[in-house]
Design goal:
By secondary structure, the protein is mainly alpha-helical. The protein contains seven helices and no strands. The chain has one domain. Helix 4 (64-84) runs antiparallel to helix 7 (156-181).
Length: 183
């Protein structure tokens, strides 16, 4: 049971969670060092773990038709902030937390659609969440490794952060329209 849901959680990020990958990418792109990144990713993780648990246990309910476009808008918001804010602000962890609440509802929708055994609900939920975290950590590590050579370059923001964030915001806007208006 545990390995199955651990794998399902990981696969929800890699290879199927491209929207979540782009959200995490937006956080990594604009983080000036590892400390602010840890704060943001931790806030995001705590929030989505919380709403994942609340939604799976039925305490919180929100229709996917509302959640999915809002997740896409969260991607647009973080990527857009990367473009227009050159310096890291400590409101970013709060923003990551707030958007993590939405992403947790999305994770819950995916997990519920996979089916949850009522007798091992806690174990399945924990395993899925750990799988999601594992997928996120792989994404963060890969991005940090890929960007290590240029993150301190004077041109990093202009040549990497801004164009990548613009592309991410465009993808999020497309998904928002697609999820809100197309079946």
């Amino acid at each position: 049971m545990f390995p199955t849901y651990l794998t399902l959680g990981f696969e929800h990020i890699l290879p199927r969670g491209f929207d979540h990958v782009l959200f995490i990418t937006s956080l990594v792109l604009a983080s000036p060092s590892w400390r602010p990144l840890v704060w943001q990713v931790s806030a995001f993780t705590v929030a989505h773990a919380l709403t994942l648990a609340l939604a799976v246990t039925g305490v919180v309910r929100m229709p996917a038709a509302v959640v999915e476009p809002l997740i896409a808008l969260s991607i647009v918001a973080v990527a857009t902030e990367n473009i227009f804010t050159a310096r890291f602000h400590w409101r970013r962890p709060a923003m990551a937390f707030g958007f993590g609440l939405l992403h947790g509802l999305g994770f819950a929708g995916a997990l519920v659609s996979l089916g949850l055994p009522s007798e091992d609900l806690l174990v399945s939920l924990l395993a899925f969440n750990l799988g999601v975290e594992g997928g996120q950590l792989v994404v963060v590590a890969a991005l940090l490794a890929a960007l290590a050579w240029c993150r301190r370059a004077p041109w990093y923001r202009a040549r990497v952060v801004v164009p990548a964030s613009a592309a991410i915001a465009a993808a999020g806007a497309f998904w928002c329209v697609q999820r809100a208006f197309l079946p």
